[in-house]
Amino acid sequence: MLTRKRFLSWLLLPVLALCSLMALAEPEGAAQALHLLSYLGADYPATVAAGQVVDSGEYQEQLEFHGVLAGLVAALPANAGKDGLLQGVARLGDSIRERRDGAAVADQARQLAADLVASYRISLTPRITPDPARGAALFAQHCSVCHGEGGLGDGPAGIGLEPPPANMRNAARMDSLSLYDLYNSIGLGVEGTDMPAFAAQLDERARWDLASHVAGFSADPAAARGASFSLEQLAGQTPQQVAAEQGPAAAAALRAQRAAPP
Ligand code: HEC
Question: What 8-state DSSP symbol labels residue 123?
């Protein structure tokens, strides 16, 4: 009997594997939608102050991003959470048009991203622990021409680009992005800039390795022991969020650990 059961389970294995693969496949447009939400959350706050637009070019871009986001969410397959998401997208649009406070809009964008992740069961966690040393070699090969060897955004091919390549030592900026956000920017590129999409050229693992290396530019390795985070937390949380919820030592630990995942 035992052998027979085993035999049966072997027969079933490929079917199970196929099911889990299907469960893993995220709907088209979902990563792009998360990418836009991360941009809205990080970039919108600097465009308004006290109900007034202070940077109209950037503010217009936020409105455009929101339009693209609305289209992407509308195109997602129907499920139990989709109506709620569409309402959330509409409310986010209202807030942007009403020039609401940056922190409130950033919160709305983050909440919407969390709802999207939950209702489509999107995995934000790398399958293999990122290797920042491998990321450093890839960075020298593909990225430092623009971002500079030290990540300051001062590489020779970046001269004259508008906007210039991101400065990865800008701690405030890096604190507003999760490792998954960085991974997503590397794979999808950044719309309206010269940042190329590397998804066709660099596989998932390489993109996570790079994200970890990039996060290292604003991290203090000595702070790694403040708190311990799971790979899921390292990938999905921002130092800004952790600072607000658990204090500065925990945020410093997150920064250090995402640059050198245990
Ligand atoms: C052709 C020049 C160029 C190359 C090559 C390039 N980048 Fe970029 N990168 C940019 C520009 C321009 C931006 C946009 C900056 C902005 O949005 O203000 C950017 C933005 C980014 C961002 C988003 C940062 C943020 O603040 O949101 C990340 C992450 C990034 N690059 C990583 C990489 C990595 C990793 C590589 C190599 C695999 C790479 N880039 C290669 C030009 C480049």
Answer: -
